[in-house]
Specification:
It is built from six helices and no strands. The protein is an all-alpha fold and 165 residues long. It has one domain. Helix 3 runs antiparallel to helix 4 and helix 5 packs antiparallel against helix 6.
């Protein structure tokens, strides 16, 4: 799969949304850059509007991500191109939810949410790997990272209830 394609028009909004304002255009570890790029937006969203705002943000970025990913895949003639990182944004925000719920803006909890999300996104244990391989199109792009975010969130919930909070 090529990370670059001559048919991509960098003037198109879907390119900037799919790459999360250019984070996905960074050549080395674009998924990690996309996750890092998601953190300030998630923190600001939570600070301004709480968990309800973050929930709405997750839903909105997932819908926008589906649209932008579909357009990006069509234009680039690739599936789950590494430049598409809006899926990391949705997954990272899902992972942040319990960090904010249990620990508010604690930097250690935010870092744990980031590291756990990246662990699950990179290693793709089952069922994340199944979704990644079996579901095509924009739905597959978005869904495997959402599951990685859920897995990270469950770990954080477990950590809190195990007395690490």
């Amino acid at each position: 799969m090529s990370d670059e394609h001559p048919r991509l028009d960098l003037k198109q909004p879907y390119v900037w949304l799919a790459t999360w304002f250019g984070c996905g255009l960074i050549k080395h570890a674009p998924g990690t850059w996309g996750s890092l790029g998601a953190l300030p937006f998630g923190i600001i969203l939570y600070t301004l509007s709480g968990l309800w705002g973050l929930t709405l943000g997750i839903l909105l970025v997932s819908l926008i991500g589906y649209w932008a990913s579909a357009r990006f895949e069509k234009a680039s003639a690739t599936h789950d191109n590494k430049m598409i990182v809006i899926d990391e944004v949705a997954g990272q925000w899902i992972a942040l939810f319990p960090a904010f719920f249990y620990w508010n803006l604690n930097p250690v909890a935010i870092a744990a949410a980031f590291l756990l999300f990246r662990l699950f996104d990179v290693t793709k244990p089952w069922p994340i790997s199944y979704i990644d391989k079996q579901i095509g199109g924009a739905l597959g792009v978005m869904l495997d990272d959402s599951l990685a975010g859920i897995a990270a969130a469950l770990c954080l919930i477990g950590a809190f209830h195990a007395g690490l909070g």
